[in-house]
Amino acid sequence: MSPRTAGAGPVLMLKGLMLKGLMLLAVLLGGCGEVYFYWQAGAGQLDIIQRRRPIVEVLADPRTDGETRRKLNLILEAQKFASARLALPGDGHYRFYADLERPQVTWLVVAAPPLELREHEFCYPLVGCLGYRGYFQREDADELAARLIADGLDVLVRPVSAYSTLGWFDDPVLNTFLEYSDAYLVGTVIHEQAHHRYFLKGDTTFNESFASFVEEEGLALYFGELSGLGPEMLERWRLAQVDRALFRSLVLQARANLMELYGSKAPDDQKRAEKARILADLVKEYRGRKNEFRVLDYDSWFGRPLNNAHLVGFGQYTSRVPAFRALFKRQSGSFQRFFEEVEALGKLPAGEREARLDQLEKELDSHHPPAGAAG
Hints:
By secondary structure, the chain is mainly alpha-helical. It is 60% helix and 8% strand. The chain contains 14 helices and 8 strands. The chain has a 3-stranded mixed β-sheet. It has a 3-stranded antiparallel β-sheet with strand order 6-3-7. A hairpin with a 3-residue loop joins strand 4 and strand 5. It is globular and about 65 Å long.
């Protein structure tokens, strides 16, 4: 375990009181399962806090290896960039480093009905109902997944390397970030700071698509303006963007086919059989076009049995990105004005907000032919 932050005693006491208050709230609001969920969440967050060290201290420590030092400096640089150029929060975020001594921070459970592309929601007292639930231990996530499967739902359990507490805590950089490429690392900083900038209570797809768009646009600016990164990294990032666009096009087409199927009047047994065929065709098409991917592969994504939860999880991060891109174009590239418009969208009733997002997507489609829509 890493040493505690010097002088952090009062801060830890305050955080501990906040965590105990959250656990007490769980006792008042939920049954035994809910109590345990908040208990493990509080204990996991407290463990992270206790492992934190200021990044400046880690950088000054002669025991810190060269690659960790380089990547922590990259994160500091990315954070300054995000604050200066993307109007994202810069204070009180990613000032610490915590080594969790494991390759992931949490395990996420996503579920969906077997014949609907609709996320199963989990409700929380502070942030509303969201399309996922996270656990610090894999066995806890698997236990929930088993219960959801027994209830007839499609379920996905996946590891998570980064998350945001939305300002409730001073989120540290985690060792789970550092195994990834520089581009992924910078993108993670931007994505999580976007959540820190704005979060709409109770709308997972809005929040994740918003942060994904800010990440994509921010990375484009980052690579365009910081010439010191080198041509090889820039070229790899460009190729990765093409690979991601191809992956999205494959999955989005399968999603469209499934949505049409689920909306039809076919009997449920026929829908289940056709669903299996559509998902099998998706895997087959990926394998047939694998040589088109230049620097990325999605073997692990396609290597497990696919179900609605996989496609719902994918949609949370991507389905509304085109709408946010159209909104950004309307603001002529001003992130500050873009965030103001996002906040205005968040104030609309859910139905009106969805209609507005649909309108923005059509606006973007009118300026781009369908062949390019997948990117």
